[in-house]
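[Primary structure, fold]
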Amino acid sequence: MRSFQIIVFVLFLSCSKTDKKLNNLKTKFNDTTVVLIDTIEKYSLHKLGKVFCVGDFDGNGKKDTIYEHNFSKLKKEEIKIAPDPVKNDWEEVIKWFHKQDSDLYLSFNNPNKDTLHLGKALGLYCLLNIGDNNFDGKDEIAFVVDYLDFSNLNSCKIYSLCKGKWIELKQFNIDENAFDFTSITSSGIKNYLEKKGNKWFYKDNLQKDSKMQLLKLEKCQ
């Protein structure tokens, strides 16, 4: 009579709303199948949405395209698939991006132009070409970063390419709830950054009784 040693691996998982996928590895041992629970994917994944915008950002009279990227320094590759923040616990999503050592950045279609690194983040809520607001011959960009934090308080940042380098010209506070029910268009962010006619208006969320005011940007030095 042959005897077998049976090894049982038990993995306890915390309860969550996430759909879990079971990956079973089967190995043959003396005509007996031993099932080892190797890994259980605890995330519900989705394709990571990324934005871009077109404009003359360096003032050479030609159109450029700026693309959003999210790069994994751990895997040395672009992050294309990531945990869905709607279907996963937000804290677990944050841990996942930190484990990837992610780097959110903006880059031109021309590799010789400056890259704007924004740090660890889920992505961008929006990326807008707001035109040449300061009349220096170049279009400016406005964007809102979806940071890996637990606060709805955020800011809209406005950048311009100055002497070949991205420089922040302005930022103002907004509430991330603005993105919950409003689709972002080329006309801006409803109630926070809006284009009316040929001019842009903005509102700072932290200024009491703040009203939309004309956006005026200084030329970068």
Notes: The chain has one domain: 45-214. Confidence is low (pLDDT under 50) at residues 1-40.
